[in-house]
Amino acid sequence: MLEAIRNRSKGPIAKFVLGLIIIPFAFTGVYSYFNAGGANVVATVNDSEIDIREFEQAYRAQQQNWGENFDRFFNTEERIQQFRMNVLQQLIN
Fold first, then answer.
1. Among 11, 14, 38, 66, which is 20 to 30 Å from 90 by CA?
2. pLDDT of residue 38
3. Are residues 88 and 45 in the same domain?
4. What domain range is 63 assigned to?
């Protein structure tokens, strides 16, 4: 059975179908690569952008400030979201 699949996958029809599948993924990947400039922006304040790297760095710094207490206090998704919003608010101000 595997031999039959292998033999049929080498034919021109299989290559055509594979090409139909690969081409859209290739164009989508190239499009997202060239248009990802604004995708990494977390917030824009007075024409100044805060990118994801800056936010993640501030988030990790605040998390380290809390130390071992972070996991104890921020134990629900709601509290973590609030913490993230506070970090973002600090970057904005």
1. 38
2. 55
3. yes
4. 41-92
